[in-house]
Amino acid sequence: MAWFYQVYSASIRKKTQKTLKSKSTSKVFGYSSFIVVASLFAFVFNSNSPKDDIPLERLSELPIAESNERFGFNLNEYFISEGEIQPNQFLADILIPHQVSYVDIATISENAKEVFDVRALRAGKPYVVISSDTSQQADYFIYEPNKLRYVVYDLNNKTVEIKEREIERVTRTASGSIESSLWQTMVDQDLNYDLAARMEDALAWSVSFHHIQKGDVFKVLYDELYVEGERVGVGELYAAYFHNSDNDYYAIKFENDRYDGFYDLEGRPMKKVFLKAPVKFSRISSRYNLRRFHPVQKRVKAHLGTDYAAPYGTPIYSVANGVVTKASRTKGNGNYVKVKHDDTYTTQYLHMQRFAKGISPGVQVQQGQVIGYVGSTGLATGPHVCFRFWKNGKQVDHLRLNLPEPEPMAEEELPAYFEVRDSLKQIIDQIGLADEVVAANQ
Questions:
Q1: Region 166-272+415-442: CATH code
Q2: Can you give 63-85 as a three-state secondary structure string?
Q3: pLDDT for position 290
């Protein structure tokens, strides 16, 4: 009996794995039953064999199921059911098969509104249902909107909590020579798509990314984010460099109690009063031209704006702070928004697919705020935004304007900034081009 008592005691202290997925429950129970029967036969035939006895002091050496730690739970100790939200699937569709009543689902949904509304569940996103007993109500529903966080719905206590995953930050450098576009060059190097957006945000007021040319060069110093060893995004951008049309542009991140942003080598803010363009990752398809042949009306007609071609649904940004004076539709303009920035400058954005939420006359908007989405409404042959710019009531070519500069950094702050600038610039200048590194290794 010593053998059976010792093994039984060990099994009590080291809890047996229940299952990984509820759909496999019957198989697991069948396998477990086989193990129990086999153990009893072994006990009957070997109970008189001292060689099979396990010394009490060696119980700690018995193999233990490896922990399956996720979401703060050891999932080996629970029944779990995993899946993805399906199109037109509601929370009730998922939870009712797990013994959760309509009343409890309604209570949980109401309690979740201020934390993570169940209406925000999206098709294609993963979820896990955790149960300690499949014959009873499930204990937890866990939803993963992204790799950086997950939402825990406690089905017993009817509470909801958003959990942030532990993020590892790794500082990296990247560089390249442009072949077609900044975005494509980064994609070709397996760099995160968001890095191109971050870099464009840092340099958008100085570099027109709609005029970049083959052979232009970029370098960047940034943090890459990892969760459980998987790359999940881009963190802080510390410095960026771009060589374009024989000009060198640096953007240096600086932050203290008074300033927070990107600055050039002299300490002037990179962020100007106006953005260079109202859309990212686009191209100029038609310029300001007083003698343009209109592609729809088939006649020479002045084009008093700049067309930026981009895919349907691309966000359109207000190029500066201001107040929306019009958000309307006409036969020629399609859906359009007009923004007054001050007594001198006004901008207009034509052919929108739709307006952004909350955009209406009288609403104040900030520089970089989404005001609509690229479409082809009105007299348009394809998806683009026609960007128009007024100065003192007259439409002008914004690409030829000397627009106002922001306030420079205070003199007393410059020594601290220059110290940061020098250290980051040294790193940037030492970065070799990616294609040069590849060539050197061949």
A1: 3.10.450.350
A2: CCCCCCEECCEEHHHCEEEEEEC
A3: 53
